[in-house]
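REQUEST FORM: STRUCTURE PREDICTION
Request ID: SP-0412
Submitted by: Lab K.M.
Chain count: 1
Length (residues): 250
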Amino acid sequence: MPQTQIPFNSRITPPPGSTPGSTPESAPGDTLGRVQNDPSGSVPAIESPYSGGNSGGTSGGLSREQILQATFVCLHDKGFEATTIRQIAKQLDCAIGSIYRYFRDKHDLLYVVTQELLEPVAAGLAVQTPLQRSVAMYANLASSDLQSYRLMFWLACNKQNHADALPTVVRSILNQWTDLLDSKTQAQTLWAMLHGLLLLEQDQENILRQLATWLDDQEHPTLERPESPIEPEIVIFPRRPQPIEDITLL
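STATUS: Completed
RESULT:
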């Protein structure tokens, strides 16, 4: 199957004055607007999520986290097409087989790496981050690395024997939003609006404003649903009389 080129041309650096890897504090009653007005301190800066060295592997061998770290760097420095198993192995100074011990192929490896973009959202929800703040985190993280975000969904659609086209981390976030809203339909609608506005590359402030309005409407609906459908009024116009043809024989 031909591969679609999805370039990664920009390095991702923490914003000035922010602490890399910091997790936002979740305060009761937080709103999208509050997060929106303080974007630099409310969402963790996007850096390599694999800075832990050899954690998760043996002390004498190549660890899974080291492979993910090298892949992350290669992906953002060289781009999707140039990120190959051979290139990653060269960067790690290891045999290609060492990478295949952990990952089936390049797509399997990149699928894991790109999902780390939204892992802070899923992790925050697991420790009771308010819904509004988690939505703002999602918007901030995805918009800060939109090419990785798009690639994540492309890889999910191309995974073999993968019935659900949603990435695993997105399905996890959706499930937790469903619990918070107590409605699967509302959670899916919220995510669909957010996802669509991100892909349209809307301004983040505009995205958060629209979502905040929608969430407020769910809590305080302004339109009441009629008890019974209103039947349209049918107006029957009288037919214009047709002229009578004179067939009298003279």
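NOTES: Residues 107 and 155 are 7 Å apart (CA to CA).
Reviewed by: T.R.
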